Amino acid sequence: MELTYYGHACFAVKIDGKTLLFDPFISGNPLAASINPDQIEADYILLSHGHVDHLLDCPSIAKRTGAMVIGAYEVINWIAAQGVEKTHPMNIGGRRSFDFGSVKCVNALHSSQLPDGSYGGNPMGFVISGDAGSLYYAGDTGLTLDMKLIAEQYHLDFSVLPIGGNFTMDAEDAAKAAQMVNCNKVVGIHYDTFEPIRINKEEAKAVFDKNGITLLLPSVGETITLK
Ligand code: NI
Ligand code: MN
Fold this sequence. Notes:
Distance between the termini: 6 Å
Shape: globular
Radius of gyration: 16 Å
Number of helices: 6
Strand order of the largest sheet: 6-5-4-3-2-1-14
Largest sheet: 7 strands, mixed
Mean pLDDT: 98
Helix content: 10-25%
Number of strands: 14
Order of helices and strands: EEEEHHEHEEEEEHEHEHEE
Number of domains: 1
CATH superfamily: Ribonuclease Z/Hydroxyacylglutathione hydrolase-like
Bound molecules: nickel (II) ion, manganese (II) ion
Low-confidence stretches: none
Oligomer: single chain
Strand content: 25-35%
CATH topology: Metallo-beta-lactamase, Chain A
CATH architecture: 4-Layer Sandwich
């Protein structure tokens, strides 16, 4: 599996020949100025919740690529109202098979509101599992014991966790989350974009190191191979 980081909480994973794009927020992120959202390819777009820093560029990328957008029922209603035709609504606890593997929607402790102020349903994380491997994307979340359930049901190759604090877990809590889901390879996201989530990257790495977990912090535009 290959992961490309597009800044903030946006990344793409190539799994079984399909490209899954998560939480596209590029045109509003000065740290992702080197990325042109009009050139990003996707077969599927997965949205963790309705906050604008997770879906700003979703409608335009979905319409151009024809990607299917997957997310909470309420988020998908809003996306469909923007003119996106291929959508698939889910909700927490749901699991569904696609041509790249399965998507399970898991609990995230956060909030969710769409750009027009309407209710976004429950925020969620995703476990993606297929022949090529398994990954957990936590979405925006605080640390929660529910993460232990993931370790009981899946063997994860890597996890993508927020580490910026303030709105989500910080590095210390994310390292604890990695232990709970029993995964020793973590890609850190959701940091540095805004003032309240600025971090010291070396300190964050040290926190994970101390717990025997590798924290990967790819730069914007960088592609890394995981598994
Ligand atoms: Ni959020
Ligand atoms: Mn966010």
